[in-house]
Amino acid sequence: MMETVRSRIYSAAVILVFICLYGSVRAQVEDALVSERLQAITTMLQSDKPGADRWWYGWLIGYGAATAAQGAIGLSSDEKTVQQDMGLGAATTLLGTAGQLLMPLVPAAALKKVAAMPESTPAEREAKLAAAERALEEFARREKSGKSWQTHALSTGVNLASGLVVWLGFKRSLEEGLIYFALNEAVTEIQIWTQPTRAVRDWERYRAQYAPDARLGYGKPPAYWAVTTGPGRLGVSYVF
Fold first, then answer.
1. Residue 10 has pLDDT above 60, yes or no
2. Is residue 132 part of a domain?
3. Structural domain count of the chain
4. pLDDT tens across 14-72, in order?
């Protein structure tokens, strides 16, 4: 009888040790994968930001300078046509400036938050990974939106309105109205087509590598076994 009890105790101990070892190894593997993903996505965010910043600040400064210059020329001129052209030009470039300010490509607050988050423990690394994924996804969404048909349509509508103002509002020729429309349309299309899309490609590449079958959003971590020890005690828990 005692031999049977000892045998059962021994078998239970072996199973317990196996479970503990399995849980520990699995937790280490999961944490290693989190670290790998965190490093990959952090590198992407750091690589994507400079190009997006150059494009955004470049067009912001360009529109701002054009607004100031046209406004100054219009105010200093005594010719009605110059005043009209410069006033309308300043209004359209002012809209461009406002568009840059209202729709920045880089979610700066999110990137700063990710950079400031600690990553010294598995739980901290999981939280930082989740925040980094949301930041890159939002980065990619903004880039994609900037090249959407809605953006093209909106800019074309504004440019068409400015051409109509020249033709009908200022009572110029149809040709002058078309030229004004064409010039503004060329500028806005160049702005749209030169907008970076690196974050879009990086987000797609990240999803393809780490979550090919689902929309990525780092959710609840997988369940795992854990062992707790202390003076005079040994505990086993299943975290889910």
1. no
2. yes
3. 1
4. 455 445 444 444 567 688 899 999 999 999 999 999 999 999 999 999 999 999 999 99
Which domain, by its residues, includes 133? 2-49+92-147+195-239
21 assigned to some structural domain = yes
Q: Which amino acid is at 20?
A: C
Give the relative orientation of helices 122-146 and 198-210 as an angle to the nearest 10 degrees: 130
Tell whether the model's pLDDT for residue 133 goes beyond 90.
yes
Residue 103: its pLDDT value, please?
86
Cα–Cα distances (Å) from 129 to 82, 112, 119, 229, in that order, read 55, 14, 9, 29
User: Rounded to an integer, what distance in angstroms lies between the CA atom of residue 171 and that of residue 164?
Assistant: 9
Instruction: Please report whether residue 18 resides in a domain.
Output: yes
Write the CB contacts of 87 (distance below 8 Å, at least 6 apart in sequence): 70, 71, 74
Instruction: Classify residue 228: in a domain, yes or no.
Output: yes
- Separation between Cα atoms, residue 237 and residue 30, nearest integer Å: 17
Give the Cα separation of 188 and 100 in Å (integer). Answer: 12
